[in-house]
Amino acid sequence: MLPEGAEPDGFEDDKGAIPIEIGGDEKNWAFAFWMMQLAARRDVRLSVSRAGQLQEVLLTPQPAKDWYLPNRGLRLEPLTTTLKSDSFVQAVAMGVRHTKNSLLDIYLTLRNLIGGLLSYKELHGPIGIARVAYEVSKEGLSKLLLFLGFLSVNLAVLNFLPIPVLDGGHMIFLAWEGIVRKRPSERVMVAATYLGMAFVLGLMLLVIYLDIFVHRLGID
Predict the structure, then answer these.
(1) Which H or E run includes 44?
(2) What is the pTM (predicted TM-score) of this model?
(3) Distance, CA of 169 to CA of 163 (rounded, Å)
(4) Nearest to residue 16, comparing CAs of 24, 25, 7?
(5) Where do the domains of the chain lie?
């Protein structure tokens, strides 16, 4: 039954209890324990066979600190190597090399998005970026600065995409003017600007939606 003031969460049956069947290859006590952890505030109704007769037993789960969750186990951390420069020139060279690799990663990400090899649901917006920045800040100031630098490179690349409203769109207009020796018509520039603005706003709404409903709430 549901405790007083509790709301149904989809696990309980019409009597307000969680029905759990144990038996077979896939359903055992570990399965029952896991189901009870999913809805710890719900009573559990077990069907027990005694002397050939089927009886129902109503149990109330209680927290037990000496029981570990089934998903606990080994956590393998990635192998990391700390690189340290011996001079200012070497530090600049390392920074340039890291920026070059970051640009390559961004290019591959955009290519995979356009080619359908990477789902758009993997994108993150300001909420996701803030959450990642917070997690990275726990690892130290150097990691946070490195992440902010990577974020700046991302923004620079996105800003130079050939989309009106962005700097890349202005570069397209300037290139057109340089080639044909004539500015695009005012009507074309205004229409392209509105289209670019609609695209950018739509992209912002999409990533915010993904941050809230997909990455946070788990709604697919």
Answers:
(1) strand 44-50
(2) 0.58
(3) 4
(4) 7
(5) 7-71, 101-216
pLDDT in tens, 116-150: 888 888 888 999 999 999 988 988 888 898 889 88
| C-alpha closest to that of 78 among 139, 122, 134 | 139
Query: Within 13 Å, how many C-alpha atoms sit on residue 148's CB side?
Result: 8
Q: What are the distances in angstroms from CA 149 to CA 124, 144, 186, 209?
A: 17, 9, 37, 25
**Tokens 């739509």 -> residue:** 202
For the CA atoms of 10, 14, 17, 20, the dihedral, rounded to the nearest 10 degrees, stands at -80
pLDDT surpassing 70 at residue 75: no
Is the CA virtual torsion 29, 32, 37, 41 positive or negative? negative
56 phi and psi angles, rounded to 5 deg: -105, 130
Phi/psi at 49 (nearest 5 deg)? -95, 115
**What's the CA gap between 116 and 103, in Å, rounded?**
20
